[in-house]
Design brief:
This protein is α/β, with parallel strands linked by helices and about 180 residues long. The chain has one domain: 3-Layer(aba) Sandwich (Rossmann fold). About 35% of the residues lie in helices and about 25% in strands. It is built from five helices and seven strands, in the order H-E-E-H-E-E-H-E-H-H-E-E. Strand 2, helix 2 and strand 3 form a beta-alpha-beta unit. The radius of gyration is 16 Å and the shape is globular.
């Protein structure tokens, strides 16, 4: 799936990055390293020490300039208004309190800055949504990720001045830009 489908989405996501100081939330194993802007100062966090170990190894292999930190999206250890762009891909499916996490992203984003999210969400098709809701407990148990989140609605519930969803998105994959 990554090579065939998500690679082009990640490229689209990172092409929208603005500013010099960037926070990547949920760096995982470093799947986004290939898309990092060359001239940016990037900090990347994850709540999993094992993921960060893999990301650190990949950082060394690829010679990527990024500061890696162990941190929870729901309680970021950064000052208010720290980053020009806050970015994450396929993260909010596993955040226990999505609203709390989004409020933290808002808090650390500079005024006029952007929060960019690439997320899979609950389908707007009632039949598919019902199936997703039915399968969600099994998926959570197997892989720890929810497949039925209303991330666009959650972003709009936060204090962002504007929220835009990329028209090229699918019914289940959304590229979301929120402005502070």
């Amino acid at each position: 799936m990554e090579g065939l489908f998500f690679k082009s989405w990640r490229k689209r996501l990172w092409a929208q990055v603005e500013g010099h100081h960037i926070l990547e939330v949920g760096v995982g194993t470093g799947k986004n390293f290939d898309y990092y802007p060359q001239d940016a100062r990037i900090t990347a966090i994850d709540f999993s020490g094992q993921m960060l170990k893999q990301a650190a190894q990949k950082r060394e292999r690829k010679n990527v300039s990024v500061e890696l930190e162990l941190m929870d999206i729901q309680s970021l250890c950064f000052a208010d208004n720290s980053f020009d762009t806050v970015i994450c891909s396929f993260v909010f499916c596993s955040v226990p309190s999505a609203i709390k996490g989004l409020k933290e992203l808002y808090r650390v984003c500079k005024p006029g800055g952007q929060v960019l999210l690439l997320e899979h969400v609950l389908s707007s098709n009632r039949l598919i949504a019902a199936l997703m809701n039915l399968l969600n407990p099994i998926v959570v148990r197997l892989v720890g990720a929810n497949i039925n989140r209303n991330t666009v609605k959650n972003v709009k519930a936060c204090a962002f001045t504007s929220v835009r969803v990329d028209d090229a998105g699918s019914d289940i994959i959304k590229l979301i830009e929120a402005r502070k």
